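For reproducibility, we list the full input for the adenosine monophosphate complex.
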Amino acid sequence: MNKLLIVGTVAFDAIETPFGQTDKILGGAATYISLSASKFGIKSGIVSVVGGDFPKEYFEKLNAKNINTDGIEIIEDGKTFFWKGKYHNDLNTRDTLITDLNVLADFNPVVPEEFKDTDFLMLGNLHPAVQMSVIQQIPVRPKLVVLDTMNFWMDNTLDELMEVIAKIDVITINDEEARQLSGEYSLVKAAQKIQKMGPKYVVIKKGEHGALLFNDGKVFFAPALPLEEVFDPTGAGDTFAGGFIGYIAKSGDISFENMKRAVISGSNLASFCVEKFGTERMENLTYDEIQKRLLQFKLLTQFDIELT
Ligand code: AMP
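The corresponding predicted structure, in tokenized form, follows.
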């Protein structure tokens, strides 16, 4: 069975959408990635940090999904990373109201022995210095290293982020971040420029408008499923990344053809994440539901046309 190591925030989130708001609930990039990847029955573990205020039940929730949390350090007298966001009426855009790094500010990650030979590495959203430290602690290069990041780190730690970007295979970012990183408005040109920075594969997430996969002159598009109800897009990008790397880790196949399926798998899982606030939908999601919706994806995108 392939191993997947996930690095990223484990957080408290406070979310406001046009449909309501939540107090501090379980969130964080690594949380969403791991819940999504756990649907593939692989051996996964998280490297992160939380404060003494982080409830034990949250660890139990992750452990119940077979997610190893030995790599989540607890700083007893510190506070857990906190993020507050407010979505606009279109639900595709949001404002970050608060980012309190707290214990993340001076976190030195330690990769558990058990994951030093990980087959796949998912560098989820957090400080690029932490992402780099994890890369350096793994002696044999994993089969695939995937990075997800966001504008916050481009604004505040660009040089460190560029060093990480030079070392990875796949980057997943949203359209605005791809434009910011490359300085190009056209996503095709942006992807070309980003490939020159290091990653051979660039995945650009476009929220309700799907995702694009670029590699060496090739491009593939996965739609997002048109949903009747979207409550809270928080974590959709991370859930996408978890569905992408989870699919690849399960199959062990890192070809472009398989990455196309992985992008569909990521879109499929993200479509569930947004249906409820926070992690709720991902916690209860069943294998049958995932399979049924994959069929919907097939029906949405397949057509026959005669070329004359
Ligand atoms: P997404 O909606 O996929 O972009 O991810 C939302 C999650 O990212 C939330 O659960 C937040 O806790 C987490 N998050 C927000 N800002 C940051 C940041 N600057 N670094 C790492 N994680 C973050």
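Residues 6 and 46 are 5 Å apart (CA to CA). Residues 256-273 form the longest helix (18 residues). Both points were considered when choosing residues for closer inspection.
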